[in-house]
Amino acid sequence: MIRGIIQSVVEGVIKRFTASGRPGETITNREYFQHYGFSSVPLAGAEAILIQEGNHIVMVASDDRRFRVGLEAGEVCLYTDEGDQIRLKRDKEIYVKSGNKLTAEIENEVTVTAKAATVTATDLIHLKSKAIVLECESLSILSSTGSSAAALKGDFALEGSLTATGSVIDTTGNTNHHTH
Predict the structure, then answer these.
(1) Is residue 77 in some structural domain?
(2) Pick from 102, 119, 154: which residue ends a domain?
(3) Per-residue three-class SS string for 76-120
(4) How far does Cα 4 stand from its chain's mean position?
(5) Contact yes or no for 46/32 (Cβ under 8 A)
(6) Domain for residue 35, yes or no?
């Protein structure tokens, strides 16, 4: 076994690396073996564990303590040098952190089942689809600023009654005092 410091990694079908090994030793263009389903390109300066069998040297593990995330016993984390992480935490919690953007690309269908769900966005939530179906026992649209809670654009079809505690206004004015 040789402990090394990675100088570079070249991505490809067979990943290759260059590293410094024992004092004065440089190991070049050797295979970087990784676990099935996991792939990474360590930064220069990361540590490596190299296995040597005769003239054949392969890297079998890498780590970079400069960016390692502190974990509790039993936790697992995928992380980057930029601070992004997917952490399997204690108490059956999965924590995802991104400093910029989270993208999920699903070919067919997404299902989320939970007792409660909260989505918080400081600026905007944009839903775009051919159709959106909300199926619930009650629906509340609240405004935290005191301004209009909802603005609807386009045609609106209501099947059932409409109850308003405030004014109902159309293009001709206030309909609260309209009589037939």
Answers:
(1) yes
(2) 102
(3) EEEECCCCCEEEEEHHHEEEEECCCCCCCCCCCCCCCCCCCCCCC
(4) 32
(5) no
(6) yes
pLDDT in tens, 59-117: 999 999 999 999 999 999 999 999 999 999 999 999 999 999 999 999 999 999 999 99
Inside any domain, residue 122: no
pLDDT digits (tens, 9 = 90+) for 9-58: 999 999 999 999 989 999 999 999 999 999 999 999 999 999 999 999 99
Distance CA 138, CA 118 (A): 16
- What is the spatial distance between Cα 84 and Cα 40, in angstroms, rounded to a whole number? 14
Q: What is the CATH number of the domain that holds 28?
A: 2.40.50
Structural domain count of the chain: 2
Provide the 10 A C-beta neighbour count for residue 127. Answer: 5
Is residue 68 a contact partner of residue 76, using CB atoms and an 8 Å limit? no
Question: Comparing 70-79, 85-94, 125-134, 158-167, which segment has the lowest mean pLDDT?
Answer: 158-167
Q: Within a domain: residue 133?
A: no
Pull the structure tokens for residue 161: 């009654």
Contact 69, 87 (CB under 8 A): yes
Helix (H, G, I), strand (E, B) or coil at 169: strand
57 and 73, same domain (yes or no)? no
Q: What is the residue range of 51's domain?
A: 2-63
pLDDT at 9: 98
